[in-house]
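Hey, I was hoping to borrow your eyes for a little while. No rush at all, and the record is pasted right below.
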Amino acid sequence: MRVLIADDHPVVRRGLRQLLADEYRSLTVGEAQDAGEALKLAREQGWDIIILDISMPGRSGLEVLRELKRERPKVPVLILTSHPEEQYAVRVLRAGASGYMTKESAAEYLIEAVKKVLEGGRYVSPKLAELLASSVEIDREKPPHESLSDREYNVLCLIASGKTVGEVAEELSLSVKTVSTYRARILGKMGMRTNAELTHYALKNGLVG
């Protein structure tokens, strides 16, 4: 099996490599620590599955996912992240991901998820299945955050979690000016004026813990 692991934490990549090696005797693993490396390796080599984090330097995993699905639509992508399911799961599955897992559950269920995805299925937890069912009802009248682009949504979640514009800029490898522009767009689309309003909305809708 050929698997590409895209995560900016070496410990996580090493742990995933070991878990997969224990299950698959013939295993080739590629590792990427940021979005640029992930896309480069995905384009240059053939993979049976890509395991992708959402939070990485430069570009978010959600943006990388959309690009991967445009360029390599048949390669399944399993999202493995520290973000709770309520925050990103529905959005990434709509973007073409074959599954969504949180890192706290990875050790127990990773192999199960990988096998299901390789067979052409989708891996969703019972909790995520409920979220997907609820999203069908929500689609009839989309909430304001559904109008945001992936980057805007990412910035919204970071601001709502208490990060300053400067901290968001550092985490996403963007300039403060660029993040401020995203913030202004978000406020405009959401019909809000302050970070406090964004935070209240995000908490109410389960976008942050």
Observations:
- The beta strands are 2-6, 28-32, 49-52, 77-81, 99-102.
- The radius of gyration is 17 Å.
- The mean pLDDT is 88.
- The longest helix spans residues 176-190.
